[in-house]
């Protein structure tokens, strides 16, 4: 028997209002509860997992609050907060998994979870001995790298060939989990002639420029951001691909730089997650005048292709085309610190991370 700590939804978020992180307030969005779980509770096909690492993703805000059934079913009061993570199988009634196996799974904000048979198909075994750290499966070999992979190989439909080399890329949220992998793929796989990398603050600008001399970092917090962005690109109408993880004002500033018939790849809108009024596109006229191609990215559309994509990402990692160095920021939620799980996730929207923001729930053995 284990005593699981679980963060559940206490009150539905009010549309347009920030989440309430005051855990002493009856109107708080989240609540920490404890629940006894044991192997005797398992039904055929189920697993009992122990969480080791949690992924922090902007998309969770939609998972929690969205009523858009095209995107997520939403979370109801009393439900455990959804999250991807890495866990260890403690007990199993599924012939495909044995105690001691490590898996990538929807572990949720909980120290332990019973995975129902209906969700087992979403699990992926991970080999602890093949990587330096288990959390690599949430960063360079996880969902964010998969997102970056599909941006290039599926949405942009690029191939490792001469006609796809030498392009100019604009990447927003460039110091983040998806953004920094996009920089590396653009430079090291598709031989970008230039990457304009938008990040927040001097430290993050310095970080993105460490990837290579063809990377020009631009600080969106700079009062002269728009002017410096145009300078970094070498003028308007210079960018072939705009990979946007932010939306809002940064999206507006970036569209100006796109060439005729360039591609805008919409991967995220983190600027608007706390302020829905920023879900606007004032520069829509450029879609017509520049004849832009716009594609929206959801990595979950490509689950059948994950094994092949992960094989290629592993090759890129081995060959040094992507790097685990500075690919993640780890925050401690071990033991009593599990009470900080929501606050760590909140930090994602305040820019506390370089690379992937990962919550450590249990120390590696």
Automatic annotation (TrEMBL):
InterPro entries assigned: ADH-like_C, ADH_N_2, GroES-like_sf, MDR_fam, NAD(P)-bd_dom_sf
Record has ATP-binding as a keyword: no
Chain ranges of the Oxidoreductase N-terminal domain: 28-121
Domain Alcohol dehydrogenase-like C-terminal: 177-313
GO MF annotations in UniProt: oxidoreductase activity, acting on the CH-CH group of donors, NAD or NADP as acceptor
Domain of life: Eukaryota
Ranges annotated as spanning the membrane: 134-156, 168-190
Keywords of this entry: Membrane, Oxidoreductase, Transmembrane, Transmembrane helix
Protein name: YML131W-like protein
